[in-house]
Design goal:
5% of the residues lie in helices and 43% in strands. By secondary structure, it is mainly beta. Strands 7, 12, 13, 15, 16, 17, 20 and 21 form an eight-stranded antiparallel beta sheet that branches. Strands 8-9-10-11-22-19-18-14 form an eight-stranded antiparallel beta sheet, with no helix packed on it. It has a four-stranded antiparallel beta sheet with strand order 3-4-5-6, with no helix packed on it. Strand 18 and strand 19 form a beta hairpin. It is globular, with a radius of gyration of 19 Å. The protein starts with a strand and ends with a helix. The relative contact order is 0.15. The site of 6-O-phosphono-beta-D-glucopyranose has 9 residues, from strand 20. InterPro entries: Aldose_1/G6P_1-epimerase, G6P_1-epimerase, Gal_mutarotase_sf_dom, GH-type_carb-bd.
């Protein structure tokens, strides 16, 4: 993939994208960058199922019990929740697009230049289908671009176009399962003092009091109107995930802890210790999209040594 160019070596970004099959024969796209970082995206659900740094270390959690068998979304990686987040509507939990087969979009409408510079990327597309229109009677085109930067950062850009004659509303989330050393040692910064809806007490609105979010029991919350940079600090591994987002005002935070883990067939009993979901989302005030209009929601994930963090980010 390194090709000669004026006697210097240049990376062939197109060739750094490979289509392979997963263990169930489903197509998946593998993205690689020149330094050895990689990401994997399944056409089932357009779900990112792996993101590795240049040392080959996995950064996203995937349950050892997940089968990756359609139609159910794999438990881990980054499922896309659309057109409904959670159970806040009449559709299946988190909506249906994570359970559908997407296609590779070879000719996507252009994105601004800074979304495509120096990245290896893939564009996926899902169009509304007759079956789904029985439960959600709206025509849409959903485009997802997944990009791996030369710095190993992972970007997801979702574009939803209303190709209906009428407006429609939706909620949305990048349901991001981060892999962590020990949930009891994790701090999330950037959500302090915000209001959240607590899914464990009938979506009651509560104001966060702590100076960071920490975990000592099940957490299932939607933080409202959050800043666009959130940090997830993993003290034991001396590393921090940075979550940057645009068009995604809310952040869902979830860890099932012991009791709920036992009730989930596709989740190992102790696996809750090694994951936290921190989702850039639009939940409280759904997007209302007029005919012919497009909505964009961007997520940018990076991974830095802890020493880099809080003060330099102004968190
Ligand atoms: O089991 P699923 O459909 O992947 O959902 C997992 C969890 O996702 C979280 O975002 C929800 O707030 C939880 O209530 C839910 O249990």
């Amino acid at each position: 993939m390194l090709t000669g160019h004026n006697s210097a070596s240049v990376w062939d970004f197109k060739a750094a994208t490979e289509i392979t099959k997963d263990r169930n024969g489903i197509d998946q796209v593998v993205l690689r960058n020149p330094q050895g970082a990689s990401a994997r995206v399944s056409l089932h659900g357009a779900q990112v199922t792996s993101w590795r740094n240049e040392q080959g270390q996995e950064l996203l959690f995937t349950s050892s019990k997940t089968t990756f068998k359609p139609p159910k979304a794999a438990r881990g990686g980054i499922p896309i929740c659309f057109p409904q987040f959670g159970n806040c509507g009449s559709l299946e939990l988190h909506g249906f697009v994570r359970n559908r087969m997407w296609v590779i979009d070879d000719n996507p409408p252009p994105l601004p230049a800074n979304d495509s510079d120096r990245n290896t990327s893939v564009d996926l597309l899902l169009k509304s289908s007759g079956g789904d229109m029985k439960s959600w009677p709206h025509s849409f085109e959903f485009r997802l671009r997944v990009s791996l930067g030369t710095d190993g950062d992972l970007s997801l850009v979702s574009r939803v176009r209303n190709v209906n004659g009428k407006p429609f509303s939706f909620s949305f989330a990048y349901h991001t399962y981060l892999l962590v050393s020990d949930i009891s040692e994790i701090r999330i910064e950037g959500l302090e003092t915000l209001d959240y809806l607590d899914n464990l007490s009938q979506k009651r609105r509560i104001t966060e009091q702590g100076d960071a979010i920490t975990f000592e029991s099940e957490v299932d919350r939607v933080y409202l109107s959050s800043p666009n940079v959130i940090a997830v600090l993993d003290h034991e591994r001396k590393r921090t995930f940075l979550i940057r987002k645009e068009g995604l005002p809310d952040v869902a935070v979830w860890n099932p802890w012991v009791k709920k883990s036992k009730a989930m067939a596709d989740f190992g009993v102790n696996e809750y210790k090694h994951m936290v979901c921190v989702d850039g989302a639009v939940i409280e005030k759904p997007v209302n999209l007029k005919p012919g209009k497009e909505w964009t929601g961007r997520l940018h994930l990076s991974f830095v040594p802890s020493s880099f963090c809080s003060e330099r980010l102004g968190l």
